[in-house]
Amino acid sequence: MFRRLFLLASLCLALSGCTNMKPEQFANEKPALALEEYFQGQTRAYGIVEDRFGNVRRTFTVDIKGDWDGKVLTLVEDFVWNDGELEQRIWRLTRDGPQNWIGTTADAIGPAKGRVSGNAFNMVYDFNLKMDGSRTKVRFDDWMFLMPDGVLLNRATMSKFGIHLATVTIAFRKDLPERAAVRAAE
């Protein structure tokens, strides 16, 4: 009996995808990430969604319009999914101390809590995810890392009841003015 319980507990831990990473581990990493500066203006990102077995299930691009008013960073995200679905999400991030942020969006359940340190940002939140025509509550553990040349890498794990469901990987790049002008003319 004890052996079965031990095996079950071990399996649950293995499936949960727990991480011990903390933003403070990246305090001295450069370049330093300032969300309100990075996301001001236009940003474009490219992403994939992988299931728990590593199979790519969806891909997307997202154009982000960021506006920092000195108190709130508003991110208007326009997604184009590889199956043709269009989706818009609007995040509002409010600074809650020198390194902490509180985020809200329509499908988040309660506030998202984030912390920036060095080149890293971590935000954890519950989300009403569209799945198979309905919505289900999932937990996101979202990590962003600013790299040289303005590239921002994002890896978010999605779980339910502590069980890893999917990983979302996104690469952000700042939109160059000439590229934005070409897209506006299209």
Question: What does it look like?
Answer:
With 186 residues, the protein is α+β, with helices and mostly antiparallel strands. The protein has a single domain, classed as Beta Barrel (Lipocalin), CATH 2.40.128.20. It is built from 3 helices and 10 strands, in the order H-H-E-E-E-E-E-E-E-E-E-E-H. The protein has helices spanning 2-16, 35-38, 177-185; strands at 41-51, 56-68, 72-81, 86-95, 100-104, 108-117, 120-131, 134-146, 152-160, 163-174. It has a 10-stranded antiparallel β-barrel. A hairpin with a 4-residue loop joins strand 3 (72-81) and strand 4 (86-95). It is globular. Keywords: Signal. Residues 1-21 form the signal peptide.
Written as H for each helix and E for each strand, in order along the chain, the element string is HHEEEEEEEEEEH
Count of strand segments: 10
Query: If helices are DSSP runs of H or I spanning 4 or more residues, what is the number of helices?
Result: 3
Cα distance, first to last residue?
66 Å
Q: Which outline best applies?
A: globular
Please report which band the strand proportion falls in: under 5%, 5-15%, 15-25%, 25-35%, 35-45% or over 45%. Answer: over 45%
**CATH topology call:** Lipocalin
The order of strands across the largest sheet is 1-2-3-4-5-6-7-8-9-10
Mean pLDDT: 88
Number of structurally distinct domains: 1
Could you name the CATH homologous superfamily?
Calycin beta-barrel core domain
**Main sheet characteristics:** 10 strands, antiparallel, barrel
Radius of gyration: 18 Å
Give unreliable regions as ranges.
Answer: 1-17
Mind telling me the CATH class?
A: Mainly Beta
CATH architecture: Beta Barrel
- The assigned structural class equals alpha+beta
Helix content: 10-25%
Organism: Niveispirillum lacus
Signal peptide: 1-21
Keywords: Signal
Pfam families: DUF3833
